[in-house]
Design a protein that fits this description.
Blueprint: H1 3-22, E1 40-44, E2 47-52, H2 60-67, E3 72-77, E4 80-84, H3 87-130, H4 134-186, E5 191-193
Antiparallel strand pairs: 1-2, 1-3, 3-4, 4-5
Helix pairs in contact: 1-3, 1-4, 3-4
């Protein structure tokens, strides 16, 4: 059984298609960039999907998000909390974060595939300890090595996906900062809290 080979082929196709489709959507727009970045929260149906930056439990951004249900993006400006909730911007934010959600699902699938392999390794370890015949010990050791190899391949895939997640997250963060700068410059996002 070569679980990792089939998983590898499926994931390579998914990764390539998803990331190529995403690569042109998350470039920052021209304009002033806040080098420190603005803290923000993406809220979908009153559930915080992601929060980046300073997210203190007593801070104004945290308080605003937890006191105001809905679907929006709230971010910390220099003089308060601002809110983005136009359908166009929310659609763009969803597009930015969709690849990260897909990559997270792939990581979860790989972790799920690791579980049975770990169980097989444990069972073979028990057999190895109980075996007295050198040929049985050798056969069991060979089986353990094959499973270990599959676990290594799955681990390498998890590492590659983790790298992709990091790249996509950085690009999304840069684009979010550009969106905030643009809406502040155009006065298209209201200040909702001090």
């Amino acid at each position: 059984m070569n679980v990792s080979h089939s998983v590898s082929l499926a994931l390579c196709g998914l990764l390539g298609a998803g990331l190529l489709a995403q690569s042109t959507d998350n470039r920052p727009t021209d304009g002033p960039q806040d080098s420190a970045g603005r803290s923000f929260a993406v809220v979908e149906h009153s559930d915080v999907r992601t929060a980046q930056g300073t997210w203190a439990g007593s801070g104004p951004l945290f308080r605003y998000v937890h006191e105001h249900p809905g679907t929006y993006v709230a971010f910390q400006g220099t003089d308060g909390v601002y809110r983005l909730d136009s359908p166009e911007r929310l659609a763009e934010v969803r597009r930015l974060y969709a690849p990260m959600q897909a990559l997270s699902a792939q990581q979860e699938a790989l972790a799920h595939a690791q579980g049975p392999l770990a169980q097989q390794q444990h069972a073979l370890g028990e057999q190895q300890r109980a075996a007295t015949d050198p040929q049985d010990k050798g056969r069991i050791g060979t089986a353990q090595g094959a499973i270990g190899s599959e676990q290594g391949e799955l681990g390498a895939l998890q590492g590659a996906i983790g790298h992709q997640q990091s790249e996509v997250a950085r690009a999304a963060y840069r684009r979010m900062q550009a969106i905030f700068n643009q809406c502040l410059a155009n006065s298209t996002c209201p200040r909702v809290a001090s």
